[in-house]
Amino acid sequence: MPTSDVVLGTVPASGPLLLVHGGAWDIPGDEVEAHLDGIRRALRVGRRVLDAGRPALDVVTEAVAALEDHPAFDAGRGAVLDRDGLPQLDAGVMEGETLRWGAVASVRALPNPVRTARRLVDSDGQARLLVGEGAERFAAEVGEPAIDPGALIVDRERRRHAALLGAHGYHTSQAFAGDHPRGTVGCVARDADGRLASATSTGGVPFGRSGRVGDSPLVGAGFWADRLGAASATGWGEAIATVQLCTRACDALASGLAPAEAAAARLRDMRERIQWEGAAPATGGLILLGSEGPGGWAFTTPRMARGWWSGEAGEGAAVDP
Length: 321
What we know:
Elements: E1 7-11, E2 17-25, H1 32-51, H2 56-69, E3 89-95, E4 101-107, H3 113-121, E5 129-131, H4 132-141, H5 155-165, E6 185-190, E7 196-202, E8 223-225, E9 229-235, H6 237-243, H7 245-253, H8 259-273, E10 284-290, E11 295-299, E12 303-310, E13 314-318
Parallel strand pairs: 4-5
Antiparallel strand pairs: 1-11, 2-6, 2-12, 3-4, 3-7, 6-7, 8-9, 9-10, 10-11, 12-13
Helix pairs in contact: 1-2, 2-3, 7-8
């Protein structure tokens, strides 16, 4: 499939709805089943939280935490390694009804950064985004566990890091157009009371600079939720942040576009507007739902790992177009 195409899909729904993603890229064939396994696990976790009557904010947090725990993805365990050979994690979460949000960036010792971001949502509001050591200190204060960063590293990423050490002319944008891993994860949900929420988590870009922050912990870019819609993005973070992809996708719902069409339109716009010299095309993926009706996704890469559940559509997971 040409990467210039936009693939989109719709999930019928009239009540509660759950969508998850595990990154949009050229997922190798021998990694497909692991991605599907991780997506299905996250759906089971999310459904349990939904069935317990808990709010959408809890649903997205726990579904993304399940994805962080699964080594198939670039979030938590299994994250890609920066130039120093270490994981560097970012996450953000947002509640649509109140516009409360929380995010952490450049953390190395948190197995589930999305849960720390969630604790910021309920904090006193004096900080919404915390980075590095400050974020890890906050996590300790609220009882979130810390681990040795080495426990998050898997052999697959050690091999890929070694290969990139010898690469010449590598530009981090290439990781979003070639076959390097970038399984950023995310979830959007609508609960039984119609509340919306979004969460996104990532290990960033392979061989990125220490301290580099992409779109995932930036509100409006890698995640967004309001009363109109909820969105979670994956792809080249610098491009996504530039066009504020998630906010603009939710805003597009106000014009009457269905979620899948709104997501596709915003991804096309990003690809057309971001044409920076020396950089690869601005590819990515997006999951999106509104305050009622169906949800949808769109992506401009060969594959995107995604899953869904609604009363009308049941449960499903896919990687191919």
